[in-house]
Amino acid sequence: KAKNVLYTPLVFNKKRIGGLTLESRFHISAGAPVEEFLWLSPFITDSEGAVIWQMGKGTPIPQSISEKQIERDVIRLGGQQSCILDACGLGLPKGFSGGLSLAISPLSNHTLMKVELRALEWGSSTFTHFRPGLASARAYQKPAHRAGLATDYIGSGAQFEKRNGKMIRDELIAVINIDDKNIAGNPTLEIFASEGFVTRVPLGRVPGFSCRHYLLSDLLSGKIPTHDLSLRLVDESATLLMSIVHLDYQRHDIAAD
Fold first, then answer.
1. SS3 label, residue 129
2. Residue 50: which of 104, 3, 93 has the closest Cα?
């Protein structure tokens, strides 16, 4: 039985976003587990919350994982062992984007699980770690100063800049609904600059267990400050997580928060 579920909203299989083709793979590590083995069962959901790939269930073993690391249709890692799960080798549709959930037992640190994201046209890659599980999210919801918000997630270091009609900096915003009560979200993205609040953008409905991706340039209308933006994701009812990927069209580089 799973003790926790870790998440990332950065699953891409040759997905075109912002003029770039994105691919991702996942570096999974046991570290020093509290038991002899760390057991992991990954599954991928799409923009509507449907499970479109799951370890086992007749699914062929991914070529990037040794058969010796599979037992009873789940990944089994001993101490200090690791494996790679490549989104491009899972039979996902070309152009797919979604989220990966990683059920684990026993408990382990979410920072041991890494996401590698690649922008093919630029030959650029970036790493970030998985997001912590629902238990951590529920703990964050308890303080009174949250004012009852189910989601209050902040990312910093964002920029949005166009020069002579040409994109210089943009942000890819990835949102995954992890609410175990299957509550659909209706989140709002609040944008702040050094001078304070700038604007508020509704993102629309995010169904239970779904994963959605947005470009900041598609969300904004009108002129806003271009440097040192902070992005705050809020939702009153559903538990959501967010990752941000910084796109630098001048340097041809990407970076993940």
1. strand
2. 93
